[in-house]
Amino acid sequence: MLASAHDATILDFTELYRVSSFLAIPSPDNTMIATAVDHRLVVRDAESLQIVQLFACAASIDVVAWAHDSNLILVASKLKKSIQVWSIIDPDWKCSVDEGIAGLANVIWAPDGRHLLSFSDFQLRITVWSLITKEASYIQYPKFSNRGYCFRKDGRYFALSERKDGKDTLSIYDCEDWTLLKHFPVDTSDLEDISWSPDGSFIAVWDSILEYKLLIYSPDGRLVTSYSAYETGLGIKTVCWSPSSQFVAIGSFDEKTRLINNMTWKPLIDFSHPSNLPYPDIKVYKESNQRDIKDISKLKVWSVTVKHYIVSFSLTDELIKPPITVPSIRAEIEKVITPKRGVGICEFNCDGRYLATRNDNMPNALWIWDLINLQQVALVQQITSIKQICWNPVVPGLCAISCSNSYVYLWSSGNSGFNDGGNDVGFGGDDDDDDAGIGGCSAIEVPAVNFQIAQIRWTPDGRSMVLMDKDKFCLAFLVEG
Asked: Which of 227, 253, 410, 413 is least surrounded by Cβ atoms within 10 Å, i.e. has the fewest?
């Protein structure tokens, strides 16, 4: 493995390996990583990255997906309109599906790992293929092939948005025999997407950006509530349930995030993203070129675990105290379909305590909110635009940030960590900041030439990240500093 630098590190990087189309997918059981490389599917061990399986594909690969039990894996070629499935435990077993004239826009696994849902071109139908009986059933007129559908968390039911004769409807299917259980109209002009609450009690439906409307339905078709924050202007940009289903966060084009609670279905609080940040108790972490910092007393590199780790660019706490001004860009509404304005990133961490948001006309800033105290606790200000954020799926207060450069950025709440065989792996900042949930930030450069991080994906156990460039990838393991 490549060492990140110096003696005290928090990330340990592997060598680089080839990948196509950003298709490096960890298995749900954390034991393997599947990568597409031209016309081949390469399955590697998740720890050593040694090749454990190699499959030849019929054409270039557009989709790679693991079954939920990690025993089967599929690849799909949209050009060839074909799907291939292999068994990891039985190399002699394989399955091929040719969609023919219907075409292939997308394919996903059903939660049972023994059915495939393939979406035809032009949203004509979904074909449900059984790998056990070799039979097929059909669902007509899905509205989208890449969104507008979701499974309940326990995998029992499938919700699908449909559109026919200019009307939006929602259908609920039983995933055991794929029978239609409920079909009902939804009060949208042009449905944008749907999301099932983690507890399975509600389905959120929201309209296109032209109309601000969030609808909450029960799975039996009853309308629970309808919410609209305003009537004029562009509306909803993103919607996210909290892990407990207690809150729905709505990112809007008016640069606010609204937190709706599931008791009254009214806004609990609005989180604004002002250009002038006045509150003095908010920690501001600003990325700076350390060579440009003349007063070393203002430089405080994040975390005791990286106190010896110095890089040319590093997230540093220059002891910036609000009020400060957050840089913003002008949204050129007349030139783009969806203007770069409003809250485009809105994500809860794994235990629901923290919410991270990015206001798209302030693309260099990430806002961290504490939902216990209902207040902002940190602002991460980057040199370049924030392209992606990923909360660790196991460590509650650890967030990875990508700016499409050679650095991986980490924000920690200060009390994050998990147990690694009896040894705690910590990512905290100063002890004084633990209770406040504002541990700190760091920037760590991938030790490779011309490697620009375009995508980040945590492994399901939260112990490593898949870092992807356009044609290569590596793993970054969390280690004790």
From this structure: 227
